[in-house]
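Journal club side-thread
Mid-discussion, someone asked how the predicted structure for our own chain would compare to the paper's figures. Pasting it here so we can look after the session.
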Amino acid sequence: MALIPSFFGSSRNSIFDPSWDPFKDFTFPSFSAHFPQQISSALVDTRVDWKETPEAHVFKADLPGLKKEEVKVEIEDDRVLHISGERNIEKEDKNDTWHRLERSSGKFCRRFRLPENVKMDQIKASMENGVLTVTVPKVEVKKPDVKAVEISG
């Protein structure tokens, strides 16, 4: 006997049944309805951290499985950092049976407007273990010269 009555007309209605899906008869709006699958999944999966240190702005992007030749780092419109690339889908063999396809593929791009206090000519990028690191040095802030003035009288 099931603990939850069947509202969806299914005989598999127990919360303890691993194949029971309480949402199977509902339709949800999909992000991928507006974009092709290969584009939407790659865009959603490209994660970038941006931190500011006293010396630089540092961007770190997780790009597992990509080589540095498959990634482009560009500066556009004077101060926009543009990170882009493409994850290619694996070649399919006619004899293979796919049970699950979760890794994303397709083009990705991320853009960041850089602040005015950066040295545009000294930007460096490196890639190690699937992590792209872009370092944008900051302009050194000059401390004002302070001169003591002697008080007379």
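Post-session note: The mean pLDDT is 79.
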